[in-house]
Amino acid sequence: MIGCIEAGGTKFVCGCVDENLTIHDRVSIPTTNPQETLSLVLDYFKDKEVSAIGIASFGPLDLNLKSKTYGYLTTTPKPFWAWTDIVGPLRVLKQVPIVIDTDVNAAALAEAKVGAAQGCDHVVYFTVGTGLGGGVLIHNQLVHGLMHPEFGHIGVKHHPQDDFKGACIYHHDCLEGMASGFAMEKRWGVKGHTLPSDHIAWDIEAYYLAQACVNALMIVSPQKIVFGGGVMHQEHLLPRVREYFKTLVNEYVVSDILNNLDEYIVSAGCGDNAGLLGAYFLTQ
Amino acid sequence: MIGCIEAGGTKFVCGCVDENLTIHDRVSIPTTNPQETLSLVLDYFKDKEVSAIGIASFGPLDLNLKSKTYGYLTTTPKPFWAWTDIVGPLRVLKQVPIVIDTDVNAAALAEAKVGAAQGCDHVVYFTVGTGLGGGVLIHNQLVHGLMHPEFGHIGVKHHPQDDFKGACIYHHDCLEGMASGFAMEKRWGVKGHTLPSDHIAWDIEAYYLAQACVNALMIVSPQKIVFGGGVMHQEHLLPRVREYFKTLVNEYVVSDILNNLDEYIVSAGCGDNAGLLGAYFLTQ
């Protein structure tokens, strides 16, 4: 049995996952402040027998094993959570291997193992919810390096009809600053899902997400691009992303699958389990 | 002895490289049309005893081993060269392993092995010459996937003082379309190197290259970003790229090396040998 944590900005989901990928004892703990939230996580695991713990966390994270702040959240703008040690308290509680990665990297892995990108060694996974992030699997390994991908913070060109200044406190009009659920709400004054499907908002949104896909293609050449997150529940959105993507790539990259974008840019297959299953696969 | 080919849009350089990385019998063959150029390449190798051949080629290339057009140049805009079989004729001549990759992927590998990124497992290499491309090494492996990186064709934001429409025949104002040597010449009517260092051209150029570095950081998190190519011979350019990079990242990504950008965004170390040495390391 593997202990799994999906550490999100709204809630921490904990569960125990067996080798058949069945999730046991799932609980959801609100993300308030580190003391409160992490002590409830520790309470959850206290009497659980687990052979390892996987953590799929919001970021940015320090994943450098040689660093003094390995396993910490670093510069997150989320109040109270910057420079919080996520791994440390669990390591004191349980003498088992603990593996942490970003929620989006973990989800990319889960999608490659059992989701919409099964059989692919090269996958980009985007989540478009309150925030916007992307994970990257290359040659069947999650990308680390100096840090880990922070795909939400690439630059994008403004949509010609979009004069929004952007909502990212670091970069203003980066991808996340223009296309996250939070950015949509800030731009339109209402939650995105209340906007009708013929609202210009969705054309704008699709344009930014398509740029993210183009940059993914040009930089890491994934075999599949997978989208999850609440904003993607708008079923009309992904087809628009594919259309813009096709226009932007303009047949420069030639591959059979690019003639059939329905199979290249796809919806996540793991649904609400992506986080816990991703955390599970991190430990394997 | 390894047979090495640097296949460029202007010239094909051939050489034989020994295990001490000494280059023997270097020749340069003009890139005219495939028949002419490739027959001179075959002539060169006819009497050479080599145990393998490495090819670092301009692209895009088909690197899918299962494809009927493996080892072909594909959609290159270079006249006469689209859908040219590069590997096939050599395979007929020599019954030795032949490995092909993009010139920029090969250069990324050479820089990681013996150049400016020695000891790094995660490297992005840009060449800024007549064209503009980038190679990517992740976890010590060159990135393939659906195809290979085509880093020159990512999107960039226009510099506020730049109304140039772009020079890329596929995407107009992509990175290459705005920042290659060819784009500079088309924009200003003269070769870039004739423009004085206080010309706005260089501020514009630095802005685009810095965006490329930011996207590299956010997507593949390299430990080092290396720049080669003729345009980079302007010594004032790289410091400006670093400045824009610093402004654009805005301390979102935290790492010691980002406090010392002189060691993060660096000039290529392999110089004119990058192509042949890259080709050599492809075979190792």
Describe the structure.
The structure is a homodimer of 284-residue chains. The model of chain A has no long low-confidence stretch (mean pLDDT 97). In chain A, helix 6 packs across helix 7. Chain A has two domains: 114 residues, ATPase, nucleotide binding domain (Nucleotidyltransferase, domain 5, 2-Layer Sandwich), CATH 3.30.420; 153 residues, ATPase, nucleotide binding domain (Nucleotidyltransferase, domain 5). The relative contact order of chain A is 0.16. Helix content of chain A is 31%, strand content 19%. In chain A, the strands form two sheets. In chain A, strands 3-2-1-4-5 form a five-stranded mixed sheet, with helices on both faces. A five-stranded mixed sheet of chain A has the order 8-7-6-9-10, with helices on both faces. With 284 residues, chain A is α/β, with parallel strands linked by helices. Chains A and B meet through strand 7 and helix 6 of A and strand 7 and helix 6 of B.
In short:
With 284 residues, the first copy, chain A, is an alpha/beta fold.
What secondary-structure arrangement, pairings included, does this model have?
The structure is a homodimer of 284-residue chains.
Chain A lengths: L1 E6 L3 E7 L5 E8 L3 H13 L5 E6 L29 H7 L4 E5 H12 L8 E6 L3 E7 L2 E2 L32 H5 L1 H8 L11 H21 L3 E5 L8 H13 L15 E3 L6 H9 L2
Parallel strand pairs in A: 1-4, 4-5, 6-9, 9-10
Antiparallel strand pairs in A: 1-2, 2-3, 6-7, 7-8
Helix pairs in contact in A: 3-8, 6-7
